[in-house]
Amino acid sequence: MKKLCLTLVVLLVLTDLIACSCSQSFGNNFLNQAKDFDAIVIGEFHRNAETSVGYFLIEKVLKGSISSDTILIHEGGTDCTEVFLESNPKLILGLYQETSQENSKVFSVPSCVTSVLYAIDDVVTSRTEFYSLHVRSPRIGIFSKEMKLKKFERKMNRL
Known about the structure:
Layout: H1 2-18, H2 30-33, E1 39-47, E2 54-63, E3 70-74, E4 90-97, E5 106-108, E6 116-120, E7 123-125, E8 146-148, H3 149-157
Parallel strand pairs: 3-5
Antiparallel strand pairs: 1-2, 1-4, 2-3, 4-5, 4-6, 6-7, 7-8
Protein backbone atom coordinates (compact mmCIF):
# COMPACT_ATOMS: atom_id res chain seq x y z
CA MET A 1 0.00 0.00 0.00
CA LYS A 2 2.88 2.36 0.79
CA LYS A 3 4.43 1.68 -2.63
CA LEU A 4 1.12 2.44 -4.35
CA CYS A 5 0.70 5.73 -2.47
CA LEU A 6 4.30 6.71 -3.15
CA THR A 7 3.89 5.87 -6.86
CA LEU A 8 0.75 8.00 -7.10
CA VAL A 9 2.44 10.97 -5.40
CA VAL A 10 5.46 10.72 -7.69
CA LEU A 11 3.22 10.53 -10.79
CA LEU A 12 1.25 13.58 -9.72
CA VAL A 13 4.41 15.60 -9.07
CA LEU A 14 6.06 14.51 -12.33
CA THR A 15 2.92 15.26 -14.35
CA ASP A 16 2.93 18.81 -13.01
CA LEU A 17 6.63 19.19 -13.79
CA ILE A 18 6.57 17.98 -17.40
CA ALA A 19 3.09 19.04 -18.48
CA CYS A 20 1.56 22.41 -19.06
CA SER A 21 0.13 23.67 -15.79
CA CYS A 22 -2.27 26.59 -16.09
CA SER A 23 -3.95 28.52 -13.36
CA GLN A 24 -7.59 29.31 -14.04
CA SER A 25 -7.86 33.05 -13.56
CA PHE A 26 -10.87 35.29 -13.97
CA GLY A 27 -9.01 37.58 -16.40
CA ASN A 28 -7.91 35.03 -19.00
CA ASN A 29 -10.39 36.24 -21.64
CA PHE A 30 -9.05 37.48 -24.97
CA LEU A 31 -9.68 41.21 -24.51
CA ASN A 32 -8.09 41.24 -21.07
CA GLN A 33 -4.98 39.49 -22.45
CA ALA A 34 -4.76 41.58 -25.64
CA LYS A 35 -2.51 44.20 -24.06
CA ASP A 36 0.07 41.49 -23.29
CA PHE A 37 0.12 39.92 -26.75
CA ASP A 38 2.97 41.08 -29.02
CA ALA A 39 0.66 40.81 -32.02
CA ILE A 40 -2.94 39.97 -32.90
CA VAL A 41 -3.66 38.70 -36.41
CA ILE A 42 -6.48 37.30 -38.54
CA GLY A 43 -5.75 34.60 -41.09
CA GLU A 44 -5.43 30.90 -41.79
CA PHE A 45 -3.12 28.24 -40.37
CA HIS A 46 -1.45 25.77 -42.72
CA ARG A 47 1.14 23.04 -42.34
CA ASN A 48 3.94 22.21 -44.75
CA ALA A 49 3.25 18.61 -45.77
CA GLU A 50 6.94 17.72 -46.15
CA THR A 51 8.38 19.35 -43.02
CA SER A 52 5.26 19.48 -40.78
CA VAL A 53 6.19 23.07 -39.89
CA GLY A 54 3.15 25.21 -39.13
CA TYR A 55 2.76 28.64 -40.69
CA PHE A 56 0.07 31.30 -40.63
CA LEU A 57 -1.09 33.28 -43.66
CA ILE A 58 -1.99 36.73 -42.37
CA GLU A 59 -5.01 38.48 -43.80
CA LYS A 60 -4.99 41.40 -41.35
CA VAL A 61 -2.81 42.63 -38.47
CA LEU A 62 -4.89 44.05 -35.61
CA LYS A 63 -1.98 44.71 -33.24
CA GLY A 64 1.79 44.71 -33.61
CA SER A 65 4.17 45.39 -36.44
CA ILE A 66 4.32 42.33 -38.65
CA SER A 67 5.41 43.27 -42.15
CA SER A 68 5.27 39.79 -43.65
CA ASP A 69 2.11 38.05 -44.85
CA THR A 70 3.38 34.71 -43.50
CA ILE A 71 4.73 33.87 -40.05
CA LEU A 72 5.95 30.62 -38.53
CA ILE A 73 4.06 29.25 -35.52
CA HIS A 74 6.01 27.46 -32.80
CA GLU A 75 3.75 24.69 -31.58
CA GLY A 76 4.10 22.88 -28.31
CA GLY A 77 1.85 21.09 -25.94
CA THR A 78 3.85 20.55 -22.79
CA ASP A 79 5.24 24.09 -22.99
CA CYS A 80 1.76 25.65 -22.80
CA THR A 81 1.48 26.65 -26.43
CA GLU A 82 -1.31 25.68 -28.81
CA VAL A 83 -1.01 22.89 -31.36
CA PHE A 84 -2.86 23.73 -34.59
CA LEU A 85 -4.96 22.01 -37.20
CA GLU A 86 -5.43 23.33 -40.73
CA SER A 87 -7.84 26.19 -40.26
CA ASN A 88 -11.24 26.70 -41.66
CA PRO A 89 -12.80 29.07 -40.52
CA LYS A 90 -10.33 31.91 -40.18
CA LEU A 91 -8.54 32.30 -36.88
CA ILE A 92 -7.78 35.32 -34.75
CA LEU A 93 -4.58 34.68 -32.80
CA GLY A 94 -3.00 36.45 -29.86
CA LEU A 95 0.74 35.95 -30.41
CA TYR A 96 3.94 36.14 -28.41
CA GLN A 97 7.10 36.66 -30.41
CA GLU A 98 9.68 33.96 -29.81
CA THR A 99 12.76 35.77 -28.57
CA SER A 100 14.97 32.68 -28.56
CA GLN A 101 14.58 32.20 -32.30
CA GLU A 102 16.98 33.78 -34.82
CA ASN A 103 14.09 34.31 -37.22
CA SER A 104 11.93 37.28 -36.11
CA LYS A 105 8.92 35.77 -37.89
CA VAL A 106 8.46 32.95 -35.33
CA PHE A 107 5.57 33.32 -32.89
CA SER A 108 3.82 31.16 -30.30
CA VAL A 109 0.21 31.10 -29.12
CA PRO A 110 -0.29 30.60 -25.36
CA SER A 111 -2.80 27.96 -24.32
CA CYS A 112 -3.38 29.03 -20.70
CA VAL A 113 -5.43 32.05 -21.75
CA THR A 114 -8.02 32.57 -24.46
CA SER A 115 -5.68 33.29 -27.39
CA VAL A 116 -7.50 31.64 -30.31
CA LEU A 117 -10.82 32.88 -31.69
CA TYR A 118 -12.78 31.95 -34.80
CA ALA A 119 -13.79 34.60 -37.35
CA ILE A 120 -16.88 33.26 -39.11
CA ASP A 121 -18.41 35.69 -41.62
CA ASP A 122 -18.80 38.91 -39.61
CA VAL A 123 -18.83 37.27 -36.16
CA VAL A 124 -15.94 36.55 -33.78
CA THR A 125 -16.50 33.62 -31.43
CA SER A 126 -14.60 31.97 -28.61
CA ARG A 127 -16.45 28.71 -29.20
CA THR A 128 -13.46 26.93 -30.69
CA GLU A 129 -13.57 23.15 -30.81
CA PHE A 130 -9.87 22.33 -30.54
CA TYR A 131 -8.25 25.37 -28.94
CA SER A 132 -8.01 26.92 -25.48
CA LEU A 133 -8.40 23.47 -23.94
CA HIS A 134 -6.68 24.63 -20.74
CA VAL A 135 -9.19 27.44 -20.28
CA ARG A 136 -12.35 26.39 -18.46
CA SER A 137 -14.68 28.77 -20.31
CA PRO A 138 -12.97 30.60 -23.19
CA ARG A 139 -14.40 34.08 -23.70
CA ILE A 140 -13.76 37.17 -25.79
CA GLY A 141 -14.64 39.54 -22.95
CA ILE A 142 -15.68 39.01 -19.35
CA PHE A 143 -19.18 37.91 -20.34
CA SER A 144 -19.13 37.58 -24.14
CA LYS A 145 -18.50 34.47 -26.20
CA GLU A 146 -19.48 36.15 -29.49
CA MET A 147 -19.06 39.63 -30.93
CA LYS A 148 -19.45 41.34 -34.29
CA LEU A 149 -16.13 41.53 -36.14
CA LYS A 150 -16.35 45.32 -36.59
CA LYS A 151 -16.91 45.82 -32.85
CA PHE A 152 -13.98 43.49 -32.08
CA GLU A 153 -11.72 45.44 -34.47
CA ARG A 154 -12.74 48.75 -32.81
CA LYS A 155 -11.78 47.31 -29.43
CA MET A 156 -8.41 46.22 -30.85
CA ASN A 157 -7.81 49.73 -32.26
CA ARG A 158 -8.10 51.15 -28.72
CA LEU A 159 -5.04 49.23 -27.53
